[in-house]
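Supplementary Text 2. Reproducibility record for the structural model of the 381-residue chain.

All settings were left at their defaults, and a single model was retained for analysis rather than an ensemble. We include the record here because the model underlies the residue-level annotations in Supplementary Table 4.
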Amino acid sequence: MRRTKILGLSLITAAAMLALASSAWGGTTLTSPAGTELEAGTKLHASAEGLVALQGSLTVACSKSTIEGEVTNAGGLNATVKASVSSFTLEECGTNTVTVLKPGSLEIHGTGEGNGTLTSTGAEITILTHGTVGTIHCIYITNGTSIGTLTGSKSTGGTARLDIAGATIPQESTDAGCGSHSELAGSYKFTSPDYLDVDAPSGTTLTSSTGTIFGIGTHLQAKSETSITFDMSSPLNVPCKESIIEGALTKAGGSETTPVDSITSLTFFECNNSTVTVLNGGTLEFFTNTATADGNGTVTGNGAEITLLTHNIFGTLHCIYLTENTNLGTLTGSKNREGKTATWALNEAPLSLNATDFGCGTEPKLTGSYTFTTPDYLDVD
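Retained model, structure tokens:
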């Protein structure tokens, strides 16, 4: 349950992130007071109103919950709004022990009239509950999880609210009795800032040459047109001669959201005496180039996990790289390529490094470019 509250708190932090996003891809910003955009470093605080509950096969409720966070990225044309959770508490959870292993990250998307929606990724909460059937250990993790709605001060006439209802949190493989998932429910109010609104984004869609919007399930495939290189810092760079990405749209986008592609296959071939294995393909999210609205856009990656074994004069290195709301470069649409297939330049995409061997690089990057082979015409609108 505690985890539930934490997730809720994290959501609140996400709202903060919106504030940062004054120039974010989708055009989302957080404002306080009305019309004044919040900046990176702005502190956020929210408290639960009443019980926060995680409901399912197992139900846990906590009477008190607070969250504190800070805007870490104010967004921009080629960035997304982010907020970190610095402190949160889940208290008075009955006989249950709720521990937040990881706070995760949050994003906010405007829906108009000062309101928005929140998603959470990477939050990991463990619950030990003691009942008639004994002690049950459950772990729940968010991954691009829709958490709830933020109602801004413009609508409430006072402090902003975060309402969580039916937020489905997937469960890690733990004890029987935890259920495959649990639903988070509860509400919070922002105590700082005392006025908070979400400015609505312009929205993004992927379209064909006829202007038709690609829908959920549309197959996407991209093949490398240059070597794709894991730049660990010379001379430890690992170039791969070929890479193929395949996926399907799980969110088509629209006036209040952005298209999301779930990666079903990500492969790297002929990687210079190295073995590259994709443990998880993760997802891609597409954003309109709001400055020009010319069919071009930007791409972010989340949840990919790639392991690399490379053999060189220093011996064998084992490296694991992750995408975590990572700016993966720019997409040039077919409109700007005389009707040819769209291209995607990685632009030294900054990968996150999991704790592995020395020599994997402190600021690893992914370089190279892809061409979309399916569909053969693709614009970002």
